[in-house]
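Researcher: Structure for this, please.
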Amino acid sequence: MTTVPATISAELAGCDCPPGPVIDDVAAQDVARVFKALGDPTRVKLLSMIVANSSGEMCVCDLTDPVGLSQPTVSHHLRLLADAGLVVREQRGRWAYYRPTTGALSDAVGALSAAAS
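Model: Predicted structure, C-alpha cell format:
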C-alpha cells in the first residue's frame, strides 16, 4: 500500500503561481445540479434521444420503450433533467413533451472553464 505524504514538499510550497478565480457557492451548486443529472446513464440516453430527434422534441410515451423502463420512472428521470435546466417540459393533454435547452450544459462547462483559466 502506498502512503501519501502528510506535508507538501518544499518545492511545491514555494510555488509563486497566482491563484485563479474560484467558482462561487451558488454557481457550484448550479454546475453540480447539471452534472448530477447527467450522472445516470439512463438520463444521458434520454437527453441524447431528445436532442437527436428531428422534430426537436419527444413525448414521454415515445421514451419508455427505448430505455426499457416504466412511464413513471422515465418521467422521474425527465423531471431531474428539467430541474437541472437541460430540457423543458410542455404538457399537451395527458402527455408531456420534452425539448432540449441550449444553455444549462454550456453554462456549466463555461463556469468550470472560467475557474480553470
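Researcher: Any notable elements?
Model: The mean pLDDT is 85. The two ends are 35 Å apart (CA to CA).
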